[in-house]
Amino acid sequence: MKHIELAVAMGLTTGIAWSCTDAPVDLDRSIGEPVLASGRSFAWSAPVTLGERVNSAATEQQPALSKDGLSLYFASNRSGGLGGFDMYVAQRACTDGCTWDTPEIVPTINTVFPDISPSLSRDGHQLFFASQRSNEHCTVSPTILQCDRDLWVSYREDVNNDFGWEEPVNLGDGINSSEQELAPSYFENDDAGPPQLFFNDGVVSGTALIAGDIYVSQLVNGVWGSPSKVPVSDALASDQRPSISHDGLELYFWSDRSGASLLWIARRGSLNDLWSEPTRVEFPTTETSDRNTPTIQPFIHSHGNSETLLFVRGTVGVGTGRDLWMSERSRIDGSE
Fold it and tell me: Are 258 and 232 in contact (CB under 8 A)?
């Protein structure tokens, strides 16, 4: 994919790198004792699974929450779907102790081909995802069983109706190519310019995505433009599944740059600043999880004074064994 690689991503030509390194955190400290991890938030809690209602004996991956935290979207290859992977949604009545209902397949947008990486716009009207259905660069045929991964979007009028999605639309060849685009993360960017879509490209070996870099595209006059490489990627590593915070100041992703598949974060002080050098996301150690437990596919969700970080643990390769997990923390700044 011939993406334009800029020295400064996001179309920014000036700025000062924001050096914001987490203060040391005692990972053996009790979860009941808040630790100030940065100038914005406290430390993350010990990770927990989303439970048997959501997780199955198959693979669950690429989780995403609605703004109100009441709808959980994810991809799974569990039985009963249409294709190898389909997108599902689970609902709950509240965010304070309510359990998730049994997940249901999302209608209209799934096909007999792999449909993955769901991600909502902040206003809840758009659902971005990746799919291997026929696209502008590829047509499924008896000799081409599935196409490259392209980015798509579906719209719904009622943001409270998780089953009211319209027929999806391909995002076009300004952002998509004949190679792999997946893991979209939408940033409204109301204060600094046009909307942006973060995502990663990839190199495929067999059915597995073995390498990737993070890119960003801007929506100008209704068209997604040529992507620019975000300067947080490591040329020698695979960096995947970016998740941009709603204020645009934190970018989570997973990478194998340390020799293990783990979560990383880059920060910036304002939308006009450069990204900081990425640092690892740290969780408290437990009897069943140390700081090098493989952890992938993050999704950051903020609401009021709390933040939730969803992610995936289990077998990193293709197959079964992946489950959805979460960690929480409090924020100093409680803006929406």
Answer: no
Q: What are phi and psi of 115, to 5 degrees?
A: -125, 120
Q: What is the pLDDT of residues 257-290, one digit of tens each?
A: 988 899 999 999 999 899 999 999 999 987 777 8
CA 222 to chain CA mean position, Å: 23
Architecture of 9-330 per CATH?
A: 6 Propeller (2.120)
Q: Determine the straight-line distance between the first and last CA of the chain, rounded to whole angstroms.
A: 36
Which distant-in-sequence residues (6+ apart) come within 8 Å of 96 by Cβ? Answer: none
Instruction: Express each pLDDT in 20-50 by its tens digit.
Output: 333 333 323 333 333 334 456 689 999 999 9
**Cβ within 8 Å of residue 244, ≥6 positions away:** 185, 186, 187, 196, 198, 250, 251, 252, 300
Q: Using alpha carbons, list the distances in angstroms from residue 237 to 4, 179, 216.
A: 19, 19, 18
Count how many Cα atoms sit within 13 Å of the Cα of residue 153 in the half-sphere of its side chain: 18
Which of 10-19, 39-48, 198-207, 223-232 has the weakest average pLDDT?
A: 10-19
Query: CA separation (Å) from 287 to 31, 52, 164, 291, 298?
Result: 14, 20, 43, 11, 22
Distance from C-alpha of 324 to C-alpha of 220, rounded to nearest angstrom? 35
How many Å is the maximal CA-CA distance in the chain? 59
Would you list the domain boundaries of the chain? 9-330
